Amino acid sequence: MSTSQASPDKYTQVREDIAKAFPNEDYDDGSFAPVVLRLAWHASGTYDKDHKDGGSDGATMRYKTEAEDPANAGLEHARHFLDPIKAKHSWISYADLWTLAGCVAVEHMGGPHIEWTGGRRDKGNETDCPPLGRLPDGALGKDHVLDVFVSRMGFTVQETVALIGAHTVGRCHADRSGFDGPWTYNPTRFSNQFYKLLLNVTWVEKKWDGPRQFVDEDEGEIMMLPTDMALLEEPFRQYVELYAKDQQKFFDDFSAAFLKLIELGVAKRSKM
Ligand code: HEM
């Protein structure tokens, strides 16, 4: 990056400032880390391998068109959370900041390190936003998950299962997506609990005046989306079983798949 005069580890202070700010008693389950992870994913998950557009390069969610996509409802909390970090380290691009913050979030919650590299640039126009409607719809099933992750973004089935394991953290908000509740009992800790619960809990349809979702039969405290339940079917299920048994394998595969996600459509550059 040409603007940088700083030392090779210039991101260390940025990482520390992000991590220090995550805990917050007044927000959700006490941390901004899950919603920041979701920002990194939604900034990247618009990539289309055939059209070669979308992806994290550009940080186009700063513009109204993409910011107001209903799929991105609630992500303003993550963007605003990062504003003071951007103000302090003004040399970093939003595109780098958002993806770096997602990686810091994973690590901060006890997950694997991700070999993030910088060099993304911010695009300067509303018209640079990718077409809306590319992010997955939790109300749909297996074919949709395959369409979005395998056909459009170019992930393998195994990488797809690893990525969706991020639902081990965070929660759904009725006023954002319409769905409600956390996936696990410890939504600020990154682990393989999502897969264990998916396999071992008796899931029943939630009886409520809201979109179709599943809750645990006993207390109705934790939840799954229809797309999460689709992972119980092949070709996904074998990997759910693998990751439920082997957390280290999940961490290794998540780390690699998440790196691939945040690199989609990012112009080649020399290592920062
Ligand atoms: C089929 C694919 C996916 C669907 C349909 C989906 C859908 C959703 C929905 C509906 C929510 C709740 C939003 C809200 O109400 O605030 C959510 C939250 C979340 N998703 Fe996903 N997601 C998918 C894949 C992923 C992937 C690949 C990642 C990351 C690698 C991810 C990370 C998260 C996180 C961390 C949250 C919690 C956010 C918070 O606590 O505010 N999701 N997702």
TrEMBL record:
Any one Pfam family match given in the protein's UniProt record, by short name: peroxidase
GO MF annotation terms: heme binding; metal ion binding; peroxidase activity
Residue ranges of every copy of the Plant heme peroxidase family profile domain listed in the record: 29-272
Entry EC number(s): 1.11.1.-
GO BP terms, alphabetized: cellular response to oxidative stress; hydrogen peroxide catabolic process; response to reactive oxygen species
Record carries keyword Iron: yes
Entries under InterPro entries matching the protein: Ccp1-like, Haem_peroxidase, Haem_peroxidase_sf, Peroxidase_I, Peroxidases_AS, Peroxidases_heam-ligand_BS
Keywords (A to Z) from UniProt: Heme, Iron, Metal-binding, Oxidoreductase, Peroxidase
Enzyme class at the top of the EC tree: oxidoreductase
Function summary: Destroys radicals which are normally produced within the cells and which are toxic to biological systems.
Family according to the record: Belongs to the peroxidase family. Cytochrome c peroxidase subfamily.
Protein name, UniProt field: Peroxidase
Source species: Parasitella parasitica
Organism taxonomic ancestry: Eukaryota, Fungi, Fungi incertae sedis, Mucoromycota, Mucoromycotina
Gene: PARPA_03959.1 scaffold 10640
